[in-house]
Protein 1
Amino acid sequence: MPGLRRLYAPQRVAVRTDARGAPTTVEGVVVEAVREEWLVEDRWWTPKPLRRHYFELALEDGRALTVFRAARAQRWYRQRA
Amino acid sequence: MEIACVIDKRLATPPRPGHAGGPWPGRADLQDPVAAAEATESMVRALEALGAGVESERPGEAFFALDGLRGLHGGSSAGVLAAVRRALGKGKAIGTAPTRFAAFLAAGDWPRPVPVAALRTRLGVDGREAEDLVEALERLGIETVRALTDLGADQVADRFGLLGLRALRLGRGEEEPLRPRAPHEELGEEIELPEGTAGRQLDRALELLVDRLLATPQRRGRTLLGLRLGARLAAGGSWSVEQGLGRPSAAPRVLRNVLAPRLEELPGPATALRLRALGLGPPARDQLELAVGGDEPRRRRLGAAVREVRATQGAEALLKILPVDASSRVPERWAMLTPYPEL
């Protein structure tokens, strides 16, 4: 629809992970702790199912950040959630 | 609460039964809007000098509460009014009443019962819209404010909409509190224009005028809330427009952008250009509180603010958060940003 924009749209972000797949750095900033993680599966009944692995992180520089890995694209995104 | 209404009879004579045929003496001053604005400003300042908090939204009119002034002027309303008369001189009509509308009726010496025509200038909308309402009321035999207030709010809302409800509330004495302006200091600049100044040269003159106004030491870093752009016309007389800024600003670019289109309204060649601040806001970065009483005034002012923000910052500058699916587990489906609707 013209004139409409999404709020909280995901933004690509560079993430390094450990062997388990949990983030260790985000944009070069070390992850202090993984505070929470959860899976979101939606639209599994459509040709474009959505499967995301969310992590709520505490970064070394004091920021709290939520990121997710999109299963289909194997890419990382940050998102306000 | 006792409210006083002062009317400068040269400037604010409303058409009404018994007076509709001709202007009062001096009414010709209305031909010169700058003179009218200056005269109103002078009247408001004289009232402020007496300690009054003055609301003035139309040329030639001022409203203020008497309650806080009695202690300063003899302890009675009569003392305050005597001081007002001394300060303003002749040619002013003064009325007092518990509400703004009733004080206006008293000052204007409206006949009783009050005809609905008295609502024309009280509804906060342009003349045509108010005229349509008055005509519709009269056509249906509702010729007096009393007859209007005898109707139920539902009936009025059905037939006359929001404007009718506003009129009904006025008639019933339900008004939002006075909104006195903050007394402001004089801040204005003027530049003479060489003969034949037009087009790009006029734009440059405006830029210079804006820069000069912002450079005035009395501004002391404060933002501007609104501007009055005026011109002395080569053919005689003068011209002016008032321009709100939507939000307090002291950015030359913002001021130039809002004022430049107004230059196109100049009715003829000008010999001088004037710019005056209509109010000073806090220094940049300070927050303003938006406190407006009642739903309708708030909506009206919000509508004006939306239009001004669009005019100054572009059509896409103002967006609204539209909730879509707050229960979704996918955050980007919670809400959308959509253009703010016209009010």
Protein 2
Amino acid sequence: MPIAQQINGALRRVPVWAVYLVGALPPLWYFWLGLTGALGPEPITALERELGLLGLKMLIVVLAVTPLRKATGLNLLRFRRALGLLVFYYILWHLSVWLLLDIRDPGRIWADIVKRPYITIGMLGFVALVPLAVTSNNLSLRKMGAAAWRRLHKLTYAAAVLGGLHFVMLVKGWQIRPLVYLGIVLLLLALRIRPARRRAVATSA
Amino acid sequence: MAGRYRSPLKWSDVTSRRAFLNRRQIIAAAGAAAGGIFAGPALARIAAAASAYSTDAEPNSFDDITSYNNYYEFGTGKADPKRHADRLTTSPWSVKVDGLVDKPGEYSLDDLMSGMTLEERIYRFRCVEAWSMVVPWIGFELADLLAKVGVRPGAKYVAFETALRPDEMPGVKYPVLDWPYREGLRLDEAMHPLTIMATGLYSEPMPNQNGAPIRLIVPWKYGFKSIKSIVRISLVADQPPTSWNMATPREYGFYSNVNPQVDHPRWSQATERPIGGGLFSRRVPTQMFNGYGAEVAQLYAGMDLEKNF
């Protein structure tokens, strides 16, 4: 696979801080679009949706890192922590727009979280991301030990499913786009189940 | 001493906002006429009488009203209808009138509209998704149309159908709803003077993305009841199936009156966001029957509106 190796070679020259820097820009850009009327006549919901979608897309990229390496040899492992932290950053923006621009009323925020299943699920997804963001550093990895750290970071799977469900549930009716996103998430998770079972079969034989 | 001056003027003497705007329009029109060749490109302006049913709230801009739409036949995104609806052929247009009527038949739009009095109705418009606009519709009362075709005894409901044109409507490829789009009203709701068939807005012919060439407007109900691009009107004895109710009966009832006390299962209906206020605009409280309670509340006297949502 020479192409993958060429890309890997090129990627080796990309510093990780560049990923953080470029990744930090889209929310600012969308905010600017909202301020200047480029997100349409109802910019608050539009901004909220764009930011949530940005988080979900990046979460899909994070989940794709391992299958992509196994299938094509393309290695993005060096950037995975940055990509994961960007997921948290986007969802933090998404949540802030909901709290500070959309609902604003603290009483209603709590009522919505408890009463509306899609918000409950979205909130759970965010809560799952918090320990991941907090432990996405070398110190935590060392303190926790690799095995425990890896176990904790399986929460990514839960966050992805919750995020996909949140999107499917918040639209009116069964719409194609959210279902496609949820489908991709489930596919990327299914790819992880198969090799594990194969290994189990191999040892029992 | 303050308060000593007594004006003979009463509040009823204050020039209403509508009349004031009308006056300005007349002056502007006179100016344009005097301007002659300097006048801008001629627009197909529709003459319509003002109506006491209009709100004096400031209408949304033409741009807001025509670029933020739910018209799933052209896609589920708010900007999709504006992008795709120009494909819709609206002329010639005919509406099939059938069921329990004296004069059933395939009516051309002109036939249907002949003898109808066009009025401007500036109505609040509340979407079930908790946003709202104020729209200056042009239209005529549905009651007049029903009188024209003759409602037979036994008719209790009016059913409506939107055009279904896979060649012109890219959204109907997807089974988001069971196409064609269907809506319905109880006969007394349909006969109510607030209920209009709209054929224009802002003195322009109805833009395609807003439901050209003819659509229903029922201002005290959630927007999805106000069915667009109507090709069929049927007078029927039984409550007709309606699209959103068929899709999710738990979330969308047949009546779908605006009601801040009855939440959508997935979101609160207590407040709404007026469109057009920008990134920092606040929600405002939603009014019972969208503020038309004085006119329509008696239609539902004795009904449990929590059950009949």
Protein 3
Amino acid sequence: MHNDWARRRLQFCTLYRVFLLRVVDLELLSADGDPTKLIGQFATIFVTISLFFTLPALLMLMGTGSFPGTEGWTPEHFFIETAMTCAGLIAVLDWEAAFPDKRDLLVLAPLPVRKSTLFLAKIAALFAAPALAVAALNIFSGVAWPFLFRSGSGGLFGVLRVWPAYWITLLVAGAFLVFAILGIQGLAANLLPRQLFLRFSAVLQAAVMCLLLIVYFVEPSLESPAALAAAQNQRILAWLPSYWFLALFNQLNGSMHPVLVPLARRAWIGLGVSALGACTALLLCYFRLMRRMVEQPDILPQTRFVSWSPRFGNSLAGAITRFTMRTLMRSRQHRMILSFYLGVGITIVVGYVKAMNRGLGSTRGTISNSFLFASILMMILTVVTLRVVASIPISLSANWIIRVTQVRSARDYHRAIRWSWLILGVAPVMASIAAFLMAASPWRPALGHFGVMFWLGILLVEICLYTFSKIPFTCSYLPGKAGIHFAFWVCVLLFIRLLHEAAELEGRLLPGLLGSVLMILIVALAAIGMRHLSASRAALTEELLFEEAYPAEITSLGLG
Amino acid sequence: MLEVRHLRKRYSGIPAVDDVSFVARAGEVTGYLGANGSGKSTTMKMATGLIEPTSGEILFEGQPIKTDPMAYRQRLGYVPEEPHLYTHLSGMEYLVMVAELRDIERSCASARIHGLLRLFGIHGDRDVAMSSYSKGMRQKILLSAALMHNPDLILLDEPFSGLDVGSSLILRSLIKELAARGKIVLFSSHELETVERLCSHVVILHRGKVVADDSIERLRVLMAVPTLEGIFSQLAVEQDSETISREIADLIHA
């Protein structure tokens, strides 16, 4: 009996470690890449954000020391919703790992591992990743801020009570979202035929990702007793769980306000229902569907009535464009990154339009500045996202075919990639802008803006191509490059203001013919200059890059 | 003619291929044999240009392959040891991509791809993602990709892996046919019976070194052994298979 228990514990620990690392696809890493470094890097990003969040709390602690009345609800709600979104996003990224896949079953089924051990290890790993992310995100802020949230009447007991209340709320709120996501996924897996589920699951994952981001950025600010009690807000509050857990925190903290009572009740009910739903769905999946997973093929043979194979430039450009398009459409990992970036872009646009209290439509013979801002931001995000996603490989072991079929120079590949990015990145944004402008705008400013956007698209593609000496999705990933994502978002946040100014400037110049021409000329000259620079650099490139490596000066001292 | 001269490859100082020299001629199938880890696949990868040799050179029709690698790749067909493919693509999409990368004219490529898929018996599954292909189907895609541009040099690294009996027989005849049409075929396999039937000339590797490079007939006479299996056992197998199998059985029984 004891031996059996020890064996199961060992099996659990082994499986738990394996499943936990599934959050990151280690097969895509460069030979130089260290997976622990990658995880460390993500942890560093979260810890840095936590440190950044802590600074205002420290300033407040030096001042008043606590929030009077219900003023603390705003930061309390912010930290709860941030933790929930973070846990939710990790759960969405971990989507594939929720259920054992065919590979797991084929490897583990012949081994003497019980289904229950496999199930528990999966669940533990599934919850550990979001929990660790939430813990890292609150490692500093979770110490300083609760001190400000303490109940005014509690004295020393209030101080001692607030930390566990805060941390329990964060973890429970995160768990609620993870349960809900698992429940939805499990429900779909149980109700739909497997092949249909596999197709639907990818769409569902992207939808959940966008929903989480949109709710995080766009949800209304109702952190006051009046707003929470208002009859017109009750409907929306029923769909905003972050407010339920705000109430739960206050309940645990002993700072309950009457207006929060129904919300706290809803939090407990929501938690119970989501936990029950997720557990039922998961148990059904494991014990009902596992056999079916092995027996059924993932994708059944299908007959295509229309074989769509559009031409995009020469054969090389066509091959790269279609490869890029198909990878973006079919690879879950790439689609997720794309959804994340574009989802945030859309929410910034929605948030901006809301904040400016303006619509996107044209007014008084010109185009609205909100539309100018939105189109510039979407152009930047689309092209840059394409560049970021193209750096993540799809299957390193399959790259040999690209290498043995390289019968053209690296320069030709560079041209083909430029063409593919123009088609897949710039053209869709241009088409959307054209449709919008044709519908509602006066022709001259519309033409001017269209010209500016065209050249801006080319400029962005050239900037992105400047250091890109590889074929999209074929070069190994070096963990150090994760910084690109972080730096990118810091830049976006810093440049939102600059973009606003650029949109305002364009809005002022567009009505005049001279202004329009001048603007187009400036952006066109910048694009042509950048193109010259990137083409000169490409001319020096002899070999395409398939393996990212650290610069030599970092790995060696060159003493040899 | 493919000529390998004093080829060496070291990984962290450990030799994988050590001073290997041989010639593969047009119109004949050259068998490249060796135990696991003897350096066969490493040599194949160096011959395709996928990895750089530590020293030595590889000449194709008298020219080092490094001189004009793109022209060399145009004339090269390669089937790797493992069927690594972009499995998110369908078989058809993959082959069209390979044709485009090789710059084969569109209508010609289309005719060849459809023809190859039909002849290999996987035309009905051409639009299915390769993630659901069996190992044999993937192998057929690799063979189609390696042959569609009518290469002059064909490097086959264990091409029979995963193929069913019928497909193996077709491939066996195909290799003979290609050699008869003047192609250079370098063929690596563990199936000694197949090698014996197909190859006129064999190169046997042991621990990265060439231990035999001759026609099978001459090796039979020289070594006074009637079969290729016997020749291979004498040259490249260090331990007695019966002793090893007994030891394994003892070990798991203990």
